[in-house]
Amino acid sequence: xLSSTQLNKMNFSSSxxxxxxxxxxxxxxxxxxxxxxxxxxxxCCSRWGYCGTGNDYCxxxxxxxxxxxxxxxxxxxxxxxxxxxxxxxxxxxxxxAASNCEGKGFYTRERFFEALQSYSNFGTVxxxxxSKREIAAFFAHVTHETGHMCYINEINGPSGDYCDExxxxxxxVSGKNYYGRGPIQLSWNFNYGPAGQSIGFDGLNDPDIVxxxxxxxxxxxxxxxxxxxxxxxxxxxxxxxxxxxxxxQIECDGGNPQTVARRIEYYTQYxxxxxxxxGDNLTC
Length: 284
Prior knowledge:
endochitinase activity; Lysozyme; mainly alpha; globular; chitinase; disordered N terminus; signal; glycosidase; 45% helix; 3-stranded antiparallel β-sheet; Lysozyme-like_dom_sf; 12 helices
């Protein structure tokens, strides 16, 4: 706190300056830096990755939570996500899965758009080409991760160890498994924990809900995307960095060139369908 003497010495020029100082201090006191912007369901994730309320958090650039936008699938660039992700586009992916796939009837366009209401910046930032590239990139990864929306749960997932015991903020719960689930195959306790906080479910005690609830499942994919991939593709860094953000430790830098090639193939295919070029930096 500043003493009255100190304040006098600072010789503020107008009442507006006093107000600005007060407002800045008030906002600063409310800042909550979140790992991966894992905000609770009642807070907005700002463009800078902070959790809070008010226009600075829920206004322009809001990435998730109760953003002020009343039209989450539209933005000033004129792109409507629903016009891009048409029935034909979505079902063109999902229909390639076999009829006995667990994802049949789980991954639906309706559930995707219900989940999208919480992520107003998806597919609506930058130019119209940027928007289409982001949509193509997201669904390219979904296609690869789920086998054209066939799989909900990771193959042999329960046999894997996805508990990072060094992470004390989101400690593993005994008997719970944090293997890949959902469109992006959310994995690890340090992702389930903050995803649950942001979306509104207990990710550590009930990770299985990502495989039971289709809307929550899509929300986890969008949550991960908005916090780790969105700015990469919309800033023009290219598709390659999104591969690194999703599974780079295993696939990139020569780790598994075949899977990288498949992701690029899907991305290129979807860009062609949406009438946009792929941009540069496709690989990792």
